[in-house]
Amino acid sequence: MNDRLIKALTGQPVDCVPMWLMRQAGRYLPEYRAIRAKIDFNTLIKTPSLCCEVALQPLARFDLDAAIVFSDILTIPDAMGLGLYFTAGEGPCFERPIQNAADIAALGVPDMYTDLGYVSEAVATLVAALKGRIPVIGFSGSPWTLATYMVEGKSSRHFERIKSLLFNEPATLHRLLELLTESVKQYLQAQINAGAKVVMLFDSWGGVLDTDNYRSCSLAYMRDIVHDLKQSVLSQHVPIILFTKGGGGWLTDIADTNCHAIGVDWTVNLGTARQQIGHAAALQGNLDPVALYAKPATIKQLVKQMFESLGDKTGYVFNLGHGILPATPPEHVSVLVEAVKRYGQVTQTARETGHVKQQT
Predict the structure, then answer these.
(1) 4 an active-site residue?
(2) Are 299 and 274 in contact (CB under 8 A)?
(3) Which domains are seen in the chain, by residue range?
(4) Pairing relation of β-strands 91-94 and 84-87?
(5) Active-site residue, selected from the candidate residues 4, 32, 65, 149
(6) Per-residue pLDDT tens for 118-158?
(7) What is the pTM of this model?
(8) Among 33, 54, 112, 326, which is disulfide-ready with 190 (CB 3.0 to 4.6 Å)?
(9) Which residue, 99, 257, 115, is CA-closest to 164?
(10) Is 223 known to be catalytic?
(11) What is the gyration radius of the CA atoms in the chain, in angstroms?
(12) Are the CB atoms for 282 and 315 separated by under 8 Å?
């Protein structure tokens, strides 16, 4: 197996910085659009064979160091009965968003092998298809991010409903977050049992909180998930990545969760991030996705500058600062991959003197 990603996430030396891309399988690829022209998104994510086909599409084009299961962060609330659907131009929505404490009391942890078995099957199908060539990444939305969609009913600009719940009925909100935390633990464990070698928590909306509420409503629950996964015999050696979009001000707090790696968005300078956390955790990120609209020469220069800012390449995974955008030209992704392979090379001397993080 190409284990660059595993090594980088655990602070071990590599010959070249590994890379994968958030949303690397998706609408920017014509072969994906061809499938979506025939199949709606809900059907697609619940059909493991198609999920595998889609997840393999970018790997046929680009020399990437990982595959990520093709799914959606809102599968857990959908399995809880909220009725997930997708509207063009609006994104994911729920037919039955949470209205009150009674709605929360009526919810339960979904069964991971009946209600959500299609996700584990998608992971296992992808693992089998890759035959050990590269690792598969499993993922979930963070409890806070899942809660925002469940209460708001869809994406939001100001998050009035869930913040009102936070300020007016904090105990009610925390009951929901506790339920989601237990669900996420089981969900990620099921993906690991199916063969995922890395898992990632997408805290897409943690950045909308103030510092105190971020720590209590988002980070505390992610810390709990990290702790429990690292206590499990089956998952204790599986690297865990935490990504809070807009979380650049809390890097040391995130590192204190004892996660293996921190994903950062493009507002964070990699060199500064390294200075803040040292090698307490690996770093992942963080090219602005819009940069892939630039000319090839500009893309190459931006990659070079990122590596120069970072300095020590040990414990680093190249990625975007958020998901790849639908209008991205695939040939520009090829330029990006070639630039990372060129500027991400690690000399033998650097490998021998690299920092190795000891995980506990």
Answers:
(1) no
(2) no
(3) 4-352 (3.20.20.210)
(4) antiparallel
(5) 149
(6) 999 999 999 999 999 999 999 999 999 999 999 999 888 88
(7) 0.95
(8) 112
(9) 99
(10) no
(11) 19
(12) yes
